[in-house]
Amino acid sequence: MTPAARLSAAIDILASIADLRVPLGEALKEWGRRNRYAGAKDRTAIASLIYDALRTRASSAWIMGADSPRDIMLGMLKVSRGLDAQAIANLCSGERYAPAALTDGERARLERATLDGAPDHVAGDYPEWLAPHFARAFGADAVAEGRALAQRAPVDLRVNLLKTSREKALEELDHLEPVATPFSSLGLRIAVAGDGRGPALSAEPSYVKGLVEVQDEASQLAALVAAPQAGEQVLDLCAGGGGKTLALASLMGNSGQIYATDSDGRRLMPIYERLERSGARNVQVRAPRGKTDILEDLTGRCDLVLVDAPCTGVGAWRRNPDAKWRMRPGALEQRMKDQDAVLERAATFVKSGGRLVYVTCSLLSEENEDRVAAFLETNPEFSGVEMKAAVQAAGLAALCEKADFGVQGMTLRPSRIGADGFFICVLRRA
Fold this sequence. Notes:
Blueprint: H1 3-20, H2 24-34, H3 40-55, H4 57-64, H5 69-79, H6 85-91, H7 104-112, H8 120-123, H9 131-138, H10 142-149, E1 155-159, H11 166-172, E2 179-180, E3 187-190, H12 205-208, E4 212-214, H13 217-226, E5 233-236, H14 243-252, E6 257-261, H15 265-278, E7 283-286, E8 302-308, H16 321-326, H17 329-347, E9 350-360, H18 369-378, E10 382-384, H19 387-393, E11 404-405, E12 410-412, H20 414-417, E13 422-429
Parallel strand pairs: 5-6, 5-8, 6-7, 8-9
Antiparallel strand pairs: 1-3, 1-4, 2-3, 9-13, 10-13, 11-12, 12-13
């Protein structure tokens, strides 16, 4: 496919997402099934165009003065990819499979329009209804944080200490040009190509053999700050696909016991294959079984309970840019209720002197500090651990200069750490 044909396909797929409100991944798969002539490079290039358009949807529409899929895509080529009006016109010749030629109005916008005077939610590329929430969380930095969340994310890997070291993993993957992550002692970072393509990890022996796992650095930091100790009883209450479960097992050196569960058994499915690949032997997966209480025997027994709470996922927008535009105000309210409920449930499993670690991949105060404060009001037997001390004890002193420390908890901003946005709070039971 020519670059112009790829652009035309991207516009069509973007239109189908707007009409059907389906996740981008599903729309791309459906397009690939219907257009088998498109090769792997074509599909990657088309996906990259759409992801970039969604990252900068608001600012791109502002540049063009309209928000149709075509307008958003054309605006993105200027805002995100830095093409000038003539370069964009060359792609839009109207010939064969190329998009229709630029109108005089479109060309004028591409030549002269800027973001001067744009409201914060446009300049920062986040939904307008979230503007007051961003202003509360970031103040004058709201636009900068929004822009950080609109950047492409690199590929972060976590080294599995059960099988190798970071030094050896760097050597094994040298052909991919990895670098050590700046904060996590377990992480490797691989830059994505100009077309947005990451490495084909499924063909890498180091990945297939479980020496490394895909995990964003911020998620690795959450596991490190949780500080699981060898021999402890640990419950990962919202384990999902098992990323943090595997990180905890690696840190514990296969000693002690980790119980991994999730309210939705379907989310647990990837964990089985990942556990086998990792060599972790101290993990017991407990999938839901109807009305049976599968965790009854753990009440009051756990040294550490990790709650990677269901959240809006604002901090992961770099990887899921379509999610920020599909999100509605009601979702935030529902997530807050879910978070309150899971914290109350988690508390029942923490033994005296044990720790409850609350984590979200959100940057909204309503899901983070507010939820911790509400929990502490009704659970006075818990108190917050001094987070700077916890970070230093985890060997992450450099993080103290970049993280935001509140009365309770710590926020990791993409603009400051170059990883996903996370909130981490350590609570201790008296």
